[in-house]
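quick one: zinc ion bound model?
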Amino acid sequence: MQVSKFWRELPQRYRLEGKKCVQCGKVCFPPRDICPVCNTNQMMRINLPKRGKIVTYTVMHTAPTSFEIYKPYIIALVQLEDGTYLTTQLTDCKPESVTLGMDVEAVVRKINEDGRDGIIYYSYKFRPVLNTNADKKKY
Ligand SMILES: [Zn+2]
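yep, here:
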């Protein structure tokens, strides 16, 4: 399945949806109804880029009960391609393989499971972008 099709078929809340101020251009994520810079309520919905770079990160060795199974997990500050910052959990990588400036992309992953009701919650996480050209390099 193509990536764009994958995203199109997801409910809106699973997309990286932010809001952009019509007056000053400030992008807010999570979306806000009032611009924190100029206080206007003229905010338009935008889809944020799905790729960015790791600005900083921390490895969590203790976790709330519902996150026990992810220990240790990595929380990263990511700067998206449009300059927007967001805090996210990294997935599909080990703490020792994370580097500053690493390219990452958004994916949808299970974040929690309500055992009693069997409800599974999904949201975005970020994972390293696999360098598909790496094995084509000539030495
Ligand atoms: Zn504004």
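The pocket of zinc ion is lined by residues 21, 23-24, 26, 35, 37-38, 40 (CB under 6 Å).
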